[in-house]
């Protein structure tokens, strides 16, 4: 049986956190490969929840936010954790594709992650104005999920930028994915805020 290094609480071998103080049981007195593997597991939540979370996010607009805000959270990856994982992948791809050519574009690329992160609370604030009976934090969860979906779709769209001009099929696929991004947002707003199509469409526009 192990014990917590922070509060000396006796712990079972398989637990990841102390039941008394909440501190992680990961020890850094091990080979770096083992530590990185555990940290990646915690960050990405690779235990089945991430797969279900992504499936719900991609296939059922607005349902993930609705489930989370109604208290059904255990089966899903927390919104901010998912956003961090997806945004890291997105900006890594973005930096490799667009911002390695010169210093000007590289500088712009450095600012985009900060700008996108600032847009989250701004978008949640706008939703709070549009839906006066809702709470800011629940709208922030919606904003995080919408940004996460946008990043996933852009990961598919971005590579087509380099070949869309020479291939009409790629241009069509890119256009369809872009249109779906806006359709998805409309459907997500309709499901999450549960208002009629006319009101939802007016607020979407």
Q: What is shown here, in short?
A:
The chain is mainly alpha-helical and 205 residues long.
Describe the structure.
This protein is mainly α and 205 residues long. 66% of the residues lie in helices and 2% in strands. The chain has helices spanning 32-44, 49-59, 63-69, 79-98, 103-130, 136-157, 168-193, 197-204, and strands at 2-3, 10-11. A two-stranded antiparallel sheet has the order 1-2. A hairpin with a 6-residue loop joins β1 and β2. α3 runs antiparallel to α6 (136-157). The protein is globular, with a radius of gyration of 21 Å. The relative contact order is 0.09.
Key words describing this protein structure:
8 helices; 2 strands; single chain
Mean pLDDT: 80
Binned, the helix content reads 55-70%
Number of strands: 2
Largest pleated sheet:
2 strands, antiparallel
Order of helices and strands: EEHHHHHHHH
Helical/strand content category: mainly alpha
Report the end-to-end length measured between terminal Cα atoms: 59 Å
Shape: globular
Strand order of the largest sheet: 1-2
> How big is the Rg?
21 Å
Treating each run of at least 4 consecutive H or I residues as one helix, how many helices? 8
Model regions low in confidence, pLDDT < 50 over at least 5 residues: none
What percent of residues are in strands? Answer: under 5%
């Amino acid at each position: 049986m192990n014990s917590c290094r922070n509060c000396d609480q006796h712990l079972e071998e398989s637990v990841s956190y102390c039941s008394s103080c909440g501190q992680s049981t990961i020890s850094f007195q091990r080979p770096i490969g083992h530590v990185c593997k555990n940290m990646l597991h915690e960050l990405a939540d690779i235990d089945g929840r991430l797969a279900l979370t992504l499936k719900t996010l991609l296939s059922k607009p607005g349902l993930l936010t609705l489930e989370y805000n109604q208290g059904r959270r255990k089966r899903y990856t927390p919104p901010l954790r998912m956003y961090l994982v997806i945004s890291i992948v997105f900006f890594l791809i973005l930096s490799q594709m667009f911002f390695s050519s010169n210093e000007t574009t590289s500088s712009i690329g450095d600012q985009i992650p900060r700008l996108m992160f600032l847009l989250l609370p701004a978008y949640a604030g706008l939703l709070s104005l549009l839906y006066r009976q809702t709470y800011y934090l629940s709208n922030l969860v919606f904003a995080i999920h919408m940004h996460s979906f946008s990043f996933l779709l852009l990961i598919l769209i971005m590579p087509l930028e380099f070949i869309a001009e020479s291939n009409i099929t790629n241009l069509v696929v890119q256009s369809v994915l872009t249109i779906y991004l806006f359709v998805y947002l409309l459907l997500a707003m309709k499901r999450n805020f549960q208002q009629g199509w006319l009101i939802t469409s007016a607020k979407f526009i």
